[in-house]
Design goal:
elongated; 28% helix; 12 strands; 5-stranded parallel beta sheet; 7-stranded parallel beta sheet; 2 domains; Rossmann fold; alpha/beta
């Protein structure tokens, strides 16, 4: 199958409606040179079709190119795409603003106690924290683990608030706004004296349980874990134990091993844990962000150029 078979139709799989309003997404694609069609699981495809989808389907392998609107493509069988010769792309690289703003929100909430004020408000309770609890993020430190688009966005925004940023990445290349870059082998050294440990790494075998008992125990007792990467990156049992034993101060979590987070999870019940339902990238303009990336890669496919964000 040719990577550059002339596309005749862009198929928008109905699963996209799980993430963004599908009609809004389709309307933003109206300037493409081919028809845009919403398709369901019963649709069939050939190499002149290109597909954008939230979920994988077996029939997609017959298409000329498939685009996953998520940054995480772990549900897609990459070996099957490679065997079929079907290009697969993802939506990494467009979340630097949205996800980093969520992280900054977590940091400010923990620092200025907004999460507790809101909890007390729902109970009509006037609450004044002890003098030593509120703090400013200015003058604090954070370690950003993973310095891709999201990690760099976090570093830039936190740095403007006066937070000293160190980072962890495989390359030792310097990053604007990051004072020190550590290798993954020096992870514990990187996180042992910062107020915020922020995870922005992809889900890979190497990042499974990246933060577990040993890492949590080497952190400061007033430190917070913030995870906007994937649930698998943090050992949840170890995190719960660390919170129960006051090993760390708290956690801001947008991703979990099981989503939705089960009602039985102890993570719901900690005052110093903020739970958000995997919404780091979601804004009322997210459909436009996804559509603009889709159009960019579509035109590359159409002209036979290398595809941005190609996974396979």
């Amino acid at each position: 199958m040719s990577d550059t078979a002339p596309p005749e139709r862009l198929c928008v799989h109905e699963s996209i409606d799980e993430k963004v309003p599908i009609e809004s997404f389709v309307n933003t694609l109206d300037d493409l040179s081919v028809p845009v069609e919403i398709v369901g699981d019963d649709a069939s495809f050939n190499e002149t079709d290109v597909i954008t989808s939230y979920r994988p389907r077996d029939g997609f392998l017959d298409a000329g190119w498939v685009h996953c609107i998520r940054a995480g493509y772990d549900e897609f069988d990459t070996q099957a795409y490679e065997d079929a010769g079907t290009p697969l792309t993802n939506s990494t690289g467009i979340h630097g603003t949205t996800v980093s703003e969520l992280v900054i929100g977590y940091m400010l909430m923990f620092a200025r106690r907004h999460h507790v004020y809101r909890d007390k408000q729902t109970r009509h309770q006037w609450y004044e924290p002890s003098y030593d609890r509120p703090f400013t993020v200015e003058g604090e430190s954070a370690c950003v683990i993973g310095l891709g688009t999201i990690g760099r966005g976090i570093a830039t925004r936190a740095n403007t608030l006066g937070v000293d940023i160190v980072g962890v990445r495989r390359s030792n290349e310097s990053v604007p706004g990051v004072s020190t870059v550590y290798s993954p082998d020096s992870l514990q050294k990187a996180i042992n004296d910062v107020r915020f440990v922020i995870l922005a790494v992809p889900d890979t075998p190497e990042t499974e349980d990246l933060i577990s008992t040993a890492e949590l125990q080497c952190m400061r007792s007033d430190a917070y874990v913030i995870n906007v990467a994937r649930g698998s990156v943090v050992d949840e049992d170890a995190l719960i134990s660390a919170l129960e034993d006051d090993i760390i101060a708290g956690a801001g979590l947008d991703v979990f091993r099981t989503e939705p987070l089960p009602e039985s999870s102890p993570l719901w019940d900690f005052e110093e844990v903020i739970v958000s339902p995997h919404q780091g990238s979601t804004t009322n303009q997210y459909h436009r962000d996804l559509a603009e990336l889709t159009k960019e890669i579509f035109r590359q496919h159409q002209s036979g150029e290398p595809l941005r964000n190609r996974v396979v």
